[in-house]
Design brief:
single chain, 302 residues, alpha/beta, 5-stranded mixed beta sheet, 3-stranded antiparallel beta sheet, 12 strands, 43% helix
């Protein structure tokens, strides 16, 4: 006959009591009151129809029935604790896997990543800079850093850098070129990120037709801004990645999409629903702190 299992809380309370031979010590381990532990043990006794412990001075003694049950439970809970400890160790040792856009990786993350490595030297990392939208529900990645408005069904998305799109070019590229409307941008040579549907949609939406031009260079994302700084063509980028270039004059802002300047547009930390592993939590905390430090540094004094 299959026995009906009693509530897990009653088994935990009795197992801790049996190891310590004390309601009070068991209560400290379980972070409850000794009265609560005693009540759970009595509930287990009622469920089993047997006396398991008796009072003995300031502690308790196990009855023969209690000793037999305790031996099995101590062994069983010990195996569970060992399995959980092994799981936690393996989970912490597994590399932190992050997918992100190449431009963000090269321009924003890499110049700052040494700070995270200094704070967390024992966290192994695997970064995948790719324009492809990785399916986090199927692939074994802890996090993604994506640009957009946070609309990725089935995933949790938290904004951490607000930013819009801006067209930029080196001063030499626009010298002598009259730019009054977005369509005039087609007069310029361009450097475009390979595999970025988002940038292609922006260009076509604003009437910038570069598909039949010969002076267009398609590059991996991490090469885009260096090429733009070198005067090889105009480029479309998220503003946060070119703030320093605009300040120093290496690049000039041509057109900025006002629709993307709202708080909802920008870079998001994206993950599957559910708790994050400790390395991922540490990285998310660091990302948010680094983004706040940037805002504080860029805020005008006074």
């Amino acid at each position: 006959m299959t026995a009906i299992l009693p509530p897990l809380a009653t088994l935990r309370a009795f197992e801790a009591t049996a190891r310590h031979l004390s309601f009070s010590a068991a209560a400290r381990e379980l972070n409850v009151t000794h009265v609560a532990v005693g009540q759970q043990v009595r509930r287990l006794e009622r469920h089993l129809g047997a006396v398991l412990v008796t009072r003995s001075g300031r502690g308790v003694d196990l009855t023969p029935d209690g000793a037999r049950l305790a031996a099995r439970l101590v062994e069983g809970f010990g195996l569970v604790r060992a399995a959980l400890a092994e799981f936690a160790e393996a989970s912490s040792d597994r590399p932190l896997r992050i997918t992100l856009t190449p431009m963000f990786a090269a321009t924003w993350l890499m110049p700052r990543l040494a700070g995270f490595r200094a704070d967390h030297p024992k966290i192994e990392m695997m970064l995948n800079p790719s324009p492809d939208l990785i399916d986090l529900r199927r692939e074994d990645y802890d996090l993604a850093i994506r640009f957009g408005t946070g609309d990725w069904p089935g995933l949790e998305a938290e904004p951490f850098i607000a930013s819009g799109f801006i067209v930029v070019a080196a001063p030499s590229v626009i010298e002598g070129v009259r730019l009054e409307t977005h369509a005039d941008l087609a007069k310029l040579p361009w450097v475009l990120q390979q595999g970025s549907d988002e940038f292609d949609v922006w260009l076509s939406t604003h009437g910038v037709h570069v598909e039949n031009k010969h002076d267009v260079t398609h590059l991996p994302g991490y090469m885009l801004l260096p090429a733009a700084r070198d005067g090889q063509g105009a480029a479309l980028a998220s503003r946060v990645l070119v703030e320093e270039d605009l300040r120093t004059g290496r690049l000039v802002g041509l057109f900025e999409d006002a629709a993307y300047r709202g708080a909802s547009a920008g870079y998001y930390i994206v993950n599957r629903p559910g708790p994050l592993r400790p390395p991922a939590r540490a990285f998310v905390r660091w990302l948010k702190r680094a983004a706040k430090d940037d805002v504080a540094r860029d805020r005008p004094a006074g």
